[in-house]
Design goal:
472 residues; alpha+beta; Chloramphenicol Acetyltransferase; seven-stranded mixed beta sheet; four-stranded mixed beta sheet
Amino acid sequence: MKLTEISKYEAQTGQLVEWTLHPTTVATAAEAAPDARQPSFVQDAHVKTTAFLRGVGLEAPTWLATAFDVAGALDFDAMEATLVAWIARHETLRSELRLTGEHLERFTLSADDVSLERTIVDDFSDGAELVRYLEERFDQATDPLRWPAYLFVTVAREDGFTVYLAFDHTNVDGYSMAQIAHEIQELYAAAVAGRPAQLVDAGSYVDFSQIERDAADDLDEDHAAVARWREFVETCGGELPRFPLDLGIAPGEYPRQNGGCEWLMSPQDADAFDAACKAMGGNFAAGVMAAASAAAYELGDEPVYRTVLPFHTRSDLQWLTSLGWYIGLGPFEIDTARAASFEQLVGMARHAARASKPVAQVPFPKAFSLLEGIIRPLSVMSYIDARTVPGAPQWTEWNAHAFGKVSYGDEVYMWLNRTLEGLYVTYRYPGTEIADRNVAAYIERVRDIMTSVAKTGTYPFAGDFGRERLAA
């Protein structure tokens, strides 16, 4: 499964049907009593940021979606039962967040009150036209200031159909998206066969959000995580770190974003890279960050590499199969110039990631609210090993894809994902000519470094300290 942009997806055509919550369900939700469980910190920040941007005239959709194929003719009744059961399974899909002024309040619908309405839209014969329609509809239907902020679509052919599910970020994260194909396939197969679905129970992200709130009640500016963020921000000149190469934007600019998705390694090379990093006393993730820091040093002359790392916050087994936004952020810092070799850089990266992880378990919007000024991530580097996600062995058979959309921003995000098909990177960045060149050059250097490690067991790197030693 690749995370890419839907505009680059080769859609199969057919009859398009939209599946939405029935008007009676929406009306019932509108009359629901308030839910005392509070939104998560990231939900709160996301909804309020969307409202702020809209207030200054900027429409910036930020949705995630997935698509996958199902064999056989579409059974409308079975699909309706599937989607109703899936919404019942994940409470976050039945929970509305309403913003009144600066106050965000939750309203949650009972699973028994969920019903769907299906609308036959059109028969599409042109794939590009279909993709344009889907992107426009996802933009409209995933508005976090309206509920529900998601849309389900099927595109049916005689021998099979494609399922599309799109959500505002308040309901999902990347790991959630990776699990959806397996769950829908199993629920649909069970509905067709008239048997119970074989799925592990899933916890409620709504419950998690309140647990997170309760745990952060006594968080203050003296907390260790807040102190670490303060120190990190101060070393970056009062903001979080930027991408190590020039992006061609002036301070305060908020340009449209460009993006891409590229394969970096085959499964065999990824295995070899993994083995080499373990032989150095690290692991695959540490090797990725060592390569990222070496590339920043060699191309951007950055003696210290700083970025922000995402970590999942699925701290209990019940959250592993739960749909939600289970992501924390932690500061990552390597004194690259002090490394005498790539092997040493891998060790430094592993140590830095370990130090970052406990900080990421503290909700970053809460931690940032205790720091002076407006602080947000400007450079994020993520690595996920998705090979053990339920359904991963079938992703190729299902033609499973994930899509993301962020329209504007001055930040650079890179997601490196290891699947059974190899390692790929998805990235987005400010859409300038300079950024086009420098982001491409950076990714190419990271690929070269990792390929060298896979092929030879190492990479000929030496920071300033190493060069001084060699000169002596």
